[in-house]
Amino acid sequence: NYNNYNNNNDEDDTEELLDPYQPLYDAMKNTTAIISTIGTIRETIPFLDYVVKPWRIFTNPKKWCQDSSHPYYVNYRVMEKVIRRAEKEQRKRNEEWRVWEEYKEEHDIHDDEDNDYDEDDNGHELL
What we know:
- The radius of gyration is 24 Å and the shape is rod-shaped.
- Strands 1-2-3 form a three-stranded antiparallel sheet, with no helix packed on it.
- By secondary structure, it is mainly alpha-helical.
- The chain contains three helices and three strands.
- A hairpin with a 5-residue loop joins β2 (117-119) and β3.
């Protein structure tokens, strides 16, 4: 249960705290493209947003808004997490590719461009 973070039930005290974004991170593992379709429904209240407290549009919402459905939290903060995770996945992929390239050099492995597979110096296919 991802909503069960820090409750005071004795029976749940042994439950490990879970990151609410973990399902998102799991879904992003080994991805090469991300299409964002997130959004929120929050109607602007012109009198309150622009007349009574117009300064709010020029300041960071986390200073004055605790509403988790606010676009700042739904659009900006979640996309910030998605981008950070995508960058982390890309760094991981780059490192794996670098290691593979070094391995190929050390073991004299040549890419066979005609056949979409790799082979060693004796012509044996590497999987």
